[in-house]
Amino acid sequence: MLLANFAILVLAGFVGYLVISKVPNTLHTPLMSGTNAIHGIVLLGGLVVLGSGADGVLNKVLLVTAITFGMINVVGGFLVTDRMLGMFKSKRDPAERER
Amino acid sequence: MNWLTEPSLQGSLYILAFALIIYGLMGMTGPRTAVRGNWIAAGGMGLAVVATLLSGMADAWLIVLGLVLGTVIGVPAARKVKMTAMPQMVALFNGVGGGAVALIAWVEYRQYDGFAEQPLHVSLATLFAALVGSISFWGSLVAFGKLQEILASRPLTLGLAHRPLTVLVFLAGLGCAVGNPLGIRSELLIIGVLVFAALFAVLMVLPIGGADMPVVISLLNAFTGLSAAAMGLALDNTALIVAGMIVGASGSILTNLMAKAMNRSVPAIVAGGFGGTASAG
């Protein structure tokens, strides 16, 4: 199980590297914001640990906080990225039409 | 409804979810496909959440509470923030992600009594996640404070003692993290990891000037991704490993590219505040 997970880890690392290596300078900031939203996937970690039964009040409070944090990361991240890209488009569109 | 809780269903949905996330991310590297790519990635994320919930959840109300709270706080924050305040908002969102990792790692440590009966890799991965997650959380908070001008955006240092102190605090955090696999089970250990990592992050980001902040945020973004991947290894959760590692790798490349676009190097920026290279505040 561990080895299979390590294999997935290494391959995912290469995917991340290859996807980003050709990005134009102008898209750096929205792309950072987009990957920022994606690591909000830690939300799943909170769901799994709380969902499989946590005991004690402190543990539950910490996990609900973690889920809240993760959810803020996900929804906030994707919305902010969309707004950034929206600004982009209104600037870019005329130029694209000219071509 | 037994088939809904089948682990292979969850596994299949995870595969579909991260395929969507990767495809969406690929779209985000071109100006024309970026908006659509962003929403495809968001769809993949939604699918991953649904797939996780399918396996049956204890404390369902608490889970709903967390999800609702996160939405209620996150959506208005993202909608209302001014375009000029975007970088600090991204820093804040990145920070809470790192904070989530650190908190989950802490709870895992408490639940398993310091991993006395867990395999070594669970202990190592969780402590790594705690260390890096905490760095990411506190580092992002300082970055937010500087960009929001709650803290001075010029480099702040404690003078000559700053650099040795930063290294010392990091070594202390690392020392705490190594203590657990060596057999110390006290909860103080993980608290030590979290606190020293926090101090290190504050000392690391304070001396960095405002102009270099986007690169630092990108670096912390990559950190959060790595910590999420480590958490995935500890929890044996493929979706966390894949998405976390993709962000870890792409974030590192992106940090480099951003630094290069500014004619700077990442080490120079991180060390820059120590009076090495002058950085525009």
From TrEMBL, chain A:
This is proton-translocating NAD(P)(+) transhydrogenase. The chain crosses the membrane at residues 6-24, 36-54, 60-81. One of its GO terms (biological process) is NADPH regeneration. The keyword Ribonucleoprotein does not apply. Residues 6-89 form the NAD(P) transhydrogenase alpha subunit C-terminal domain. It is found in: Cell inner membrane. One of its GO terms (molecular function) is proton-translocating NAD(P)+ transhydrogenase activity. One of its GO terms (cellular component) is plasma membrane. The keyword Translocase applies. Its EC number is 7.1.1.1. The transhydrogenation between NADH and NADP is coupled to respiration and ATP hydrolysis and functions as a proton pump across the membrane. It catalyses: NAD(+) + NADPH + H(+)(in) = NADH + NADP(+) + H(+)(out). Pfam families: PNTB_4TM. Keywords: Cell inner membrane, Cell membrane, Membrane, NAD, NADP, Translocase, Transmembrane, Transmembrane helix. It is an enzyme of class 7 (translocase). It is a multi-pass membrane protein. It comes from Tamaricihabitans halophyticus.
